[in-house]
Design brief:
Strand content: 5-15%
Order of helices and strands: HHHEEEHEEHEEHHHHHEEHHHEHH
Radius of gyration: 22 Å
Shape: globular
Number of strands: 10
Helix content: 55-70%
Largest sheet: 6 strands, antiparallel
Number of helices: 15
Length: 371
């Protein structure tokens, strides 16, 4: 294995998101001045500048905002803010294990909102007085509801036979895009197996594990996965980074999961490929300053590996860092262009050449002008 893995760019989807970071100071300014309603309105503008006009009523007292397969209803009045998100119908579901799962979720991961039951319908709920709608708290409430509704509706329908309450507002991708995506994912997995065999033969099991995690994040970037498979990828990535489990066990678990994806029927795989309207993005907004801070530690490692002529270690550290940034963050266009450009130029190159290219990309990000 004398060359680095190929780069497969995202085939669709927005890598920047709609958060408007420039509005956040105004959100907090209104809050500090006691203008709580204006603070909340500006928070919605921060999330999406089109949201209030597109999804609010004339009086701006109610907003019905779609997020994947749910609709989040926000009611605003003098008493406070009420957030209601109908989730799933459990009339014909396997109720006992489902309700046990709801109880678990209400303890964790939910920390602010809660899931309630009314007439065989589950819904997320949160309410608070207007003068306690601290902006960061309310952002977390909305993010918590959106993220967990998007996550658990698939699980509840797959495992417990619950039914969706809202028809998802999604845009299917074309047959050609499905074929291209399926081929790209299979290529990524097959290529990853080859690297694993190479690293395992040298007993570099940590490198094998890194390449499995990189592979899952390469798939995420390329396909912008949705649905049940998206949740499974997130679950496995979390398990693979659990240092309480031995490296060899994590490598085996990762290999099994990659095999499960490759063995899927293409039509079943395609059910996880679509574009969905969203409210609060799952990924964090990566401002230039934040990304510059995040890149400091991996850049130090990459520079040392490159200086010591450990080009494989340098490339693995660079690829791990870059793909993780795309996995975790919606970044500014300028940073996206730098990192995508580096991945493109390093694709399939020798370890030495790719090491220099990727190092230069990270250095460019670290030194980019904040303005």
């Amino acid at each position: 294995m004398n060359n680095t893995p190929k780069f497969y760019p995202n085939l669709w989807g927005d890598l920047q998101g709609k958060l408007n970071s420039s509005l956040w100071p105004k959100v907090t300014e209104y809050w500090n001045e006691g203008q709580f309603q204006n603070s909340f309105y500006t928070l919605l503008d921060y999330i999406n500048s089109e949201l209030r006009n597109k999804h609010g009523n004339k009086e701006q007292t109610q907003f019905n905002v779609p997020h994947g397969s749910v609709v989040v209803t926000i009611t605003l009045n003098n008493q406070g803010v009420e957030i209601n998100c109908p989730f799933v119908d459990i009339s014909e579901a396997i109720k006992i294990p489902l309700l046990r799962r709801v109880a678990e979720i209400n303890f964790y991961p939910l920390g602010l909102a809660e899931i309630r039951l009314n007439s065989n319908q589950l819904y997320f709920y949160y309410t608070t007085p207007l003068d306690t709608c601290e902006p960061l708290k309310m952002y977390y409430v909305l993010k918590e509801i959106c993220q967990n509704a998007d996550r658990f509706d698939d699980e509840f329908r797959e495992k417990f036979k619950a039914k969706a309450l809202v028809e998802p507002k999604v845009t299917p991708i074309s047959a050609g895009q499905i074929n291209t995506t399926w081929a790209s994912v299979n290529d990524i997995i097959t290529e990853t197996y080859q690297f694993i065999e190479y690293f395992d033969s040298k007993r570099w099991y940590g490198s094998s594990l890194d390449f499995i995690i990189i592979a899952l994040k390469r798939i995420d970037l390329c396909t912008q996965l949705q649905g049940h498979l998206k949740n499974e990828v997130k679950r496995v990535v979390t398990e693979l980074t659990d240092n309480n489990v031995t490296v060899t066990d994590r490598v085996q678990n990762g290999r099994k999961f990659l095999a499960q994806i490759q063995q899927m029927d293409k039509d079943a795989f395609a059910k996880n490929l679509y574009e969905a309207e969203s409210f609060v993005p799952e990924k964090w907004r990566g401002t230039v300053q934040r990304v510059k801070e995040d890149v400091k530690i991996p850049l130090e490692k990459v520079e040392k590996f490159h200086k010591d002529q450990n080009y494989i270690g340098s490339c693995i550290e660079s690829l791990y860092s870059i793909y993780d940034m795309f996995y975790q963050t919606n970044m500014d266009l300028a940073i996206n262009e730098i990192l995508i450009g580096s991945l493109t130029m390093a694709s399939g190159k020798s370890w030495q050449d790719a090491s220099g290219i990727l190092l230069t990309g990270l250095q460019t990000v670290a030194n980019i002008n904040n303005n």
